[in-house]
Amino acid sequence: MKYKFAQGSLQLSFFIVLSIGIIVAAIYYSRVDEQLQERYASVANEMNEQIQTLIDEKKEAILLLALSVSNNPDIKQGLKVNDSSYLQLDQFTTILEKNTFLKNIWFQIINKNGDSFYRSWTKKRGDKISLARLDIASMLKKPEIKSAISTGKFDITFKAMVPIYDGEEFLGIFEVIAKFNSIATKLENKGISSVFLVDQSYKKQLTKAFTQRFIQNYYVANLNVKEKHLKILENNAIEKQTQMKNEFFIDHDKYFLITYFPLPDIKNKPMGHFFLFKPLQDISVIDIYESRNEFFIYVTFLSILLLVIIRYIASIHLTQKIKQINTQLEEKVSTKNSELIKQGLFLQSVMDGVSNSVVVIDKDYNVKMMNKMAQKMTDYSLSSKGPNKCYKISHHLEAPCSSKHHTCPHSEVFTTGKINKVIHEHYTKNGQTQFIEITATPLHNENGEVEAIVELGHDITDHLLIHEQLEQQKNRLDHQAHHDALTGLPNRVLFIDRVSQAIKLAKRDKSKIAVLFIDLDRFKEINDTLGHSVGDKVLIEIAERLENNIRQADTVARLGGDEFTIILSNIKHASSVMKIAQKLVETLADKIISGENELYVTASIGISLYPDDGDNTELLLRNADSAMYQAKNEGRNNYQFYTQEMTEQAFERALLEKNLRRAIEKDEFTLFYQPQYNGRNNEIIGMEALLRWQHPEMGLVSPAKFVPIAEESGMIAAIGWQVIIKVIKQLNEWTAKDYCQGRLSINLSVKQIQQADFIDKILASLKEYQYNPQHIQFEVTESYIMTDPERAISTLQQLKDLNFTISIDDFGTGYSSLSYLKRLPVDELKIDQSFVRDVPGDEEDEAIVRSVISLAKSLNLQVIAEGVETKEQQNFLLAEHCENLQGYLFHRPASAEQISKLLEKRKQDYSDQDEKK
Questions:
Q1: Any idea what the Cα angle at residue 542 is, between residues 539 and 547, rounded to 5°?
Q2: How far apart are CA 671 and CA 731, in angstroms?
Q3: What is the widest separation between alpha-carbon atoms in the chain?
Q4: Can you give the pLDDT at residue 869?
Q5: For the segment 516-528, what is each residue's pLDDT rounded down to a tens digit?
Q6: What residues contact 872, with CB distance under 8 A and at least 6 apart?
Q7: Among 171, 243, 283, 908, which residue's CB has the most CB atoms within a 10 Å radius?
Q8: Are the C-beta atoms of residues 825 and 797 closer than 8 Å to each other?
Q9: pTM higher than 0.85, yes or no?
Q10: 98-112, 760-774, 886-900 — which is least confidently predicted?
């Protein structure tokens, strides 16, 4: 009876234990499903974050690219003169394709009138694009930086638009357009396939869709889309999936996790529907299943323990069956041990199937289990002889890791009982470095004590390498956005920021700063004559000289073209700025060797001081610019400090330039003529045509005021042709009256003679006006000849072949080479008035004048001296055998009417003399 009661109690107890186990297992397995859903939701969220990050990065990259390229001086110059040949963007997209991650990039430039000025994908130009695109029309009204994603007739694209300014002048819009294909490719590289769809509401708008692919009226935007993914979307109803709330679903047939990323338009209406596919096999869930298996083992052990206890209690009442029960119990234990061994083998096989390394370590650092990936990474297999210490296996050390740069997760987990993550640097058998992310998880015993740890190792070497490359690329783009591409100096953006910072420091320290505005004198002549490649080399040399002659704490920047700026901080006295400016003037004036050319470039420097001349960046820069123009007015190759008078002069200069353009249109220029004499017999040997401006309100404007502005603005070429035509007409008039005595001299500007059609225009004038070229003498400056001697020789020879005579004006002020002078087809050297002014008396000027006269005689050239104002100067020049003279001593410049009267009187005097004879 007792046996049956005990047996019934045992069966009841067993049933209760089993029921509890089943209930607990069911609850836990339900939790496993929840954990799987949480894991999938986490992966889906990471996928959405990745595409959002890629979209944000590309938007930023496109905007940075637009900001950087829009500041290109060639683009500004091209827009100014409405000539797209200045642009060098056709090969730029190819360079981007080869050297950066930016693929499928297009450029567009719109001028300030809303016309398409340049498109990188077509030769089409000049259409009124502002009528077709509201965003462009809006930006023309209010220029500002814009960055957006939109769908057009070709595709869904990134767009970045940046206004183009030259100083404060708005020139147009620079637009960068990019597709989403690079984002799809990057996702593919991360193991994520994608389908980029444009909302069905845009189907009518996509008249020239790039891929020509639509599914269920949704446009397929990416090129790397896979057919199996499109099939999944078609089978699951696209419109339904675009409205799913869980943001992901599992396709169990194809074994994919699919997440949905919506892309709204500017009105928050759907524009893009991005579906991301990740194979379920690539999502690590081993820890969930391991936890489930561990729970199963714990439940099994617990059940066995409870049954043993129950059986032990029952054995008190069944002493007569003790042996039988013990035998049965031993058999059951044996069976369970066999099952555990099998489960251990199964657990090992599961661990070996994990792609990451898995290692189980006890509290004495002994490795109890490790999977095949761990053995492969450490090149080590567990030895039955032991000891298998973890630090010896992974790092070949004789003691546990203790470095603060190489912390051991073992002691941390055993101390805190919490999961710990570290990154360790391992070395492979062949000496390569691996970076392993180790996640150490505690294993607790039935008392809640940490019995061992499980280390999950993930190789992140490639991930760190990609991260480093992206960081380098970001730094490169940041550098390009803030530095000049040619010289490597800070550009305008960075310069303005540094001026602002310098002002803040100066305000705090109660010190001063100086802003130097540097403009190279006649640099455009080098570009026009020797080409931009030589000009670029000169700019690089100038940049190096500037950097080498300032303090390390100061900043040199290139604003564009031949304009440089310098910030001098912590200035105590203006005298220190003067010393630096003078040093820069002298350094920049040294010759520059470029191939066979010896080039001389000087600089005009304007200086403004904080806080004396302004308390903000814009004011200091503007005032330094005004001072620079004053330096140019003072003869170039010098420096000037800012004064209020300079601001007034700057306004006057701007007004004068505006009036000068009107003067060309209304032909307000007139000519004065200054006779040239034989100093011995007082005979007129020729005339020099001198330009004057008869302004309707200001009266007669001095050439010293408007000629420099005309040269700098390029208007001098147009004025020069008006002068030539006026002189030709005057020559024909005087020839008809038999007034002509000698030649009429015309000064040619550098820009005029450098025009490609200069000789063609001269030939056209000969044909139209039928004048005698022997009566015309062209005067060219010595500096023009030495800028490009070979080209000058060629051009002057063509004039010589047409029977014109050539005179070198201002001789002695340049750097003429005797070897070139011998080859020049010139007829006359003109001694500059700066050397005549102080003779006799100045020994240096006397020596220069004698040298020029002697040189002219030895080369069988005529020589004439200008600026003769005193009888002493005349006597000195005649004594040195220079008979041809010009200056106030003989006759001041006069109008054509006054000169006509002079010539008529001389003609009459000669006639009277002939009659007397």
A1: 125
A2: 12
A3: 181
A4: 95
A5: 999 998 788 888 7
A6: 840
A7: 171
A8: yes
A9: no
A10: 98-112
